[in-house]
Amino acid sequence: MNGFVVSVLLLCAATGVSGFSVSSSNTNVQVKEDQEADLTCSYTADFGPNVRLEWKFKDDKGSQAYVYYGGKPTEPYASRVSIYGQANMRLSKVTRTDNGTYKCEVSGNQQFGEISVSLTVLVPPSVPMCKIPTSVTTGKAAILFCHDPVGSPAPTYQWYKDKTLLPADPTKNSNFRNATYRLDQAKGTLEFLRASLTDAGEYYCEATNSAGPAQSCRAVKMEVRDLNTGGIVAGVLVALLLLVLLIVAVWFAKKKGYLDNLTESFTNKPKPSSVYHTAASNDEADDGEFKQKSSFVV
User: Fold this and answer.
1) Pairing of strands 201-209, 64-69
2) Is the pTM of this model over 0.85?
3) Are residues 114 and 27 in the same domain?
4) Last residue of a domain, one of 64, 97, 122
5) Which of 103, 116, 99 is nearest to 33 (CA)?
6) Cα atoms in the Cβ-side hemisphere of radius 13 Å centred on 232
7) Same domain (yes/no): 240, 199
8) DSSP conformational letter for 271
C-alpha cells in the first residue's frame, strides 16, 4: 500500500497535477429578498498557513467590486458581510442589487485558486408596464411593449389576445399559422410587421418568474383600420374644384375689365410727394412772369 501511494505521488509530480484546489458546496444560491445568503468557499491545506482570501462581486451589467479585501469587508458591505468557517461569506438583508456572480479567490504558498458562486435574489413579479396602441392602420407596423422592472430573476413575458395565449412561434401552431406577429418573451415585445384586420382585439401581457405568482397588465383594445382612400380622393377632388373656380373667377374678372380698372387705379394715382413738387414748380413760374411785367411798367 505504501508503495502504491508513493507511486501515485510520483505520477502526480511527473504529470504536473497539483493538490491545490478551491471549491464550493453550492455554486448557484437563491434566496428571498431581505434574507441572508450564505456563499460557501473552501480550500485545501496545500495553500499553507498564511492564506490570502478575497471575495469579488460582478453584477449583471459587468461592474466589478471587492466585497472582502485585506482581511475585512469593504466599506459598502461592512455592516452586512461576515466571514465564517474556512472562507464562507454571509450576506445579510440581500436585495435585487446583490444579484450577480461572487468569486472566492485564495492564494498562498505561491499558489492561486478561485471558485465562482452565483447569487439570485428572489422577488415576485409586479404588475408589468404595458404600451399597447389603440389604433393601427392596415399594412403598417405595430409594436406592443411589456416590462416589469421589479421581478427577480428577470421575468419572461407572455401575450394574450382576447384572453387566448399567443404562442411564441405561431408557425408551429395550426391555429396561428396565418399570424404575422413576432414575439420576444425575454424582451416582452409583440411586433406586427404588417398589421391586418384580423389582428384587431384586446391584448394584455403577463410577467412570470420563479419567485412568485404571475402578474398581468390591464387589457387594451387595439383597432386595425383600413387606409381611408375614399376620403383622400374626395379631398383631392375638392382641392381641384376650388382651383378651377379660382381660375374661372380670374378669367371672368379679366374679361369684364375689372382687373384692368383695378390695375389702372393703382398705377395712375399720383403720389403725394409728386403733387407737392408740381405745385411748387407752378408757383415759381407764376412768380417769374409777374416780376417781368412789373419791370416792364417801370
Assistant:
1) unpaired
2) no
3) yes
4) 122
5) 99
6) 4
7) no
8) P
Place of cell 374626395: 234
Helix 229-255 to helix 258-267 angle, to the nearest 10 degrees? 70
- Please identify, among 225, 253, 276, the residue that sits at the C-terminal boundary of a domain: 225
136 contact partners, CB below 8 Å, separation of at least 6? 142, 192, 195, 199, 222, 223, 224, 225
Cell of 109: 504558498
Q: Are residues 157 and 107 in the same domain?
A: no
**Per-residue pLDDT reduced to its tens digit, 263-298:** 666 566 555 554 444 444 444 444 444 444 444 333
Domain that holds residue 255: 234-268
Return all residues near 164 (Cβ < 8 A) that are at least 6 apart: none
Residues 6+ apart with CB under 8 A from 175: none
Residues 90 and 84: beta-carbon distance below 8 Å: yes
Q: How far apart are CA 139 and CA 194, in angstroms?
A: 4
